[in-house]
Structures are given as structure tokens and as C-alpha cells.
What does this fold into?
Amino acid sequence: MSLSGYIPEAVTSQNLLERLVAFAISMLPDVGFWASTIVFAPNDIHRSMEQNRNSSYGLLGKMQVDIMSMRNFGVGFASYLVWKEGGGFEESSAPLVSYATLMVLFWSSQPVLFRSKSKDLRLAHSIATTVSAVTTTVLFWRVTRRASVLMIPFLAHLSFTALRHWVCRDRKRRSFK
It folds into this structure.
């Protein structure tokens, strides 16, 4: 059984520049996330990660940064696949514009979630990010199915975050009654 049908061309290509472009595009979501975190919420994200490391999440809490980086790399590589296999910006502009919208929402999540006092704004931002991620995944599916499969961990993380927020909210409500 050959894996050549599943490995993207950029990985098997001997062209170093093409590999560097694929790597740079794949790193873009992670670099943007950490840049917005460092600029807007350095203390808040550090405190949140410490709470996760020391919580009952166990290994998942300790590996949160690694999981986030792998998930972000997958999303970035999915955009590269759409750009490469979709014929560039001219032929696959709708999925790439949707991806750009998702990245703007994703990169702005740290200031909104950690600095905003408005619960309504945080909820609206979370809903907009989720809708944008689902839309991007569907549009990626139309170009290349491999790219949409790489988006699944991102969607799973958004679902996990929403579930965790819902459980924590219900715990707080019960504790005050």
C-alpha cells in the first residue's frame, strides 16, 4: 500500500522554497495566536494555562499548548492545500477569504475572551468563530477533502471549549443557590 496518494506534493517535492512556503503558511495561525496573546493578554493566558495544568484534566491540561500548536498547524496546512490544489487565490478565493475571516476572529479571541467585561460580546465572538470555522471547513471540502479533514481538530476544540464553558457556568449557578 502506497502513501504517495495521501502525502501532499509539498512534502514529497524536492523544491526547498516550496517546502518553506508550505511551512510558513502552516505556522501562520500559531504565530498570530501567540502574537496576540503576548500583546494583549500575557498574564491572563499564563494564569489560564497554569489552572489547566493543575486541574483535574491531568495529561490533557499539561499538553494543552502542544495540542493547540498541532491543531493550529493543521489549520494552516489546510489553507495551504486549498491554495495549492485550488489553483491559487483566483480560483479558490471564497474558501481563502473565509479562512482569513476565521484567522482574524481566532487571533482576536485572546483580547475578547480575557479582557472584555461583556459576556454578550464574548458569546457573540465565540458563535462567530464557530460559524466561521464550520463555513471554512465546508468551503475547504469543496476544494479538497484533505483540507477539511485537517480542520476537524479545530472544530473539536471549539466544541470542547463551548462544552467546558457551559459546564463551568452551570457549576457556578448551582454553587450560588
Summary: The mean pLDDT is 77.
